[in-house]
Prior knowledge:
Two copies of one chain form a homodimer.
Chain A: E1 4-6, E2 16-19, H1 22-30, E3 38-43, E4 48-57, E5 60-67, E6 77-82, H2 86-99, E7 103-107, H3 124-138, E8 145-149, H4 152-163, E9 168-172, E10 178-179, H5 180-187, E11 192-196, H6 204-212, E12 215-219, H7 227-243
Parallel strand pairs in A: 1-3, 6-7, 6-11, 7-8, 9-11, 9-12, 10-12
Antiparallel strand pairs in A: 2-5, 3-4, 4-5
Helix pairs in contact in A: 2-3, 2-7, 5-7
Amino acid sequence: VNLILLDPGEVDFSGNVILSDSRAAHVTTVLAVAPGDKIRVGLLDGPLGTALVQSILDGVVSLRCRFEAAVPPPPPVDLLLALPRPKVMRRLWPQIAALGVRRVILTNASLVERHYFDTHWLEPQTYLPLLREGLQQAKDTRLPQVSIHKRLKVLLEDELDTMVEDGMRLLAEPSGGASIHTVLKASRAQRALIAVGPEGGWNAFERDLFTAHGFETINLGGRTLRSDTACVALLAVVHETLSRGTPL
Amino acid sequence: VNLILLDPGEVDFSGNVILSDSRAAHVTTVLAVAPGDKIRVGLLDGPLGTALVQSILDGVVSLRCRFEAAVPPPPPVDLLLALPRPKVMRRLWPQIAALGVRRVILTNASLVERHYFDTHWLEPQTYLPLLREGLQQAKDTRLPQVSIHKRLKVLLEDELDTMVEDGMRLLAEPSGGASIHTVLKASRAQRALIAVGPEGGWNAFERDLFTAHGFETINLGGRTLRSDTACVALLAVVHETLSRGTPL
Lengths: 248, 248
């Protein structure tokens, strides 16, 4: 953990916070700080800052925070993901938040098994702590917004335009299509939505739906990757390409 | 599995192979092929090809293979990795092979705990099946060459030059340094060796050693990532950057 994430309701007007949960344990045992030390903090969906440790008593940590004026911008990347197996989804949550994603849009596909939607890894009380873990790792405060869509057609036809208004839409395929660099540079887009399919890929009907809704096919160089590896790899390359700005 | 990987010793001069292990089970149950069907095969460190299923009897699969003339080139990327926790190393093996790495150079560092070297995930009989799993996923035949070095100083001073002769040397840091794109494009390198540190980073002595041995510092945009996420993200970006060729 490289940052202690605080909820807005926990901090009073003077910047005082009292921690007594697992964050307090982390501060005292892992960070091993003493009164007078400073630690890095962040306000969920708000600014980063530093906190002065005022006291540590019986596992209760008292902090006084100073926050920066500016709030980090939301990440310039959205992820549309065919719901993977529960074990893979569990592994992905913290990595998605650490890499930086504004919206996580989980969807059905012909090769997604129905029972994947029944996992407790799709319940906010189980995935929110994993997303927060990723933010604390990456020193970010911007919590990804998560939505779950059981019908891909309805998602693409009726819902997606209101959720993701701007930026380039990319459909990742193991082969075919251009490189991420080529497509993003040609579009001069500042943001991207990247769609990642199930292990066996999208079917022809699904692919046509994506194309009809403005997605351009891209690939990562012809290697077929497991969906968790593919997500991390694609998010990294999209971030890296967008961060270089738009000169062609 | 998108490819069945065969060992050179298993294939006779006419291209015949008899499978009776887990690959036979995969061919009959997951791929669900019948005699007359074709499947994708590859010869370890040799060419890709296709195989005609000749017979399936009591779980024994008989194949006749035809291989392509050319052998896939080794991946243009080497990885030098401070040994992570055993659980993380286990997760990384198949992903490293799937993303494509020529050499995996595992090393000690001040923040690597001694007992990490005792794990069975560093024994060839446990990691080779995981590397093969990654190759079969990504349809590659080039097995990464693995070596383990308990002294970083000896590795950098005496061993590395004979192991990795060519290409750009990159040291990944959470912040500081240039982007991978900038460094690789300026160098016009065709290959890269990327060094990834332990969760807490390299210390100042280690960083100086890398710099003295030709490594240039790069970062992935300021987010601190877990070492497995960092490895996958860095390998993906290095591959993507190298694959775009050398025009500046």
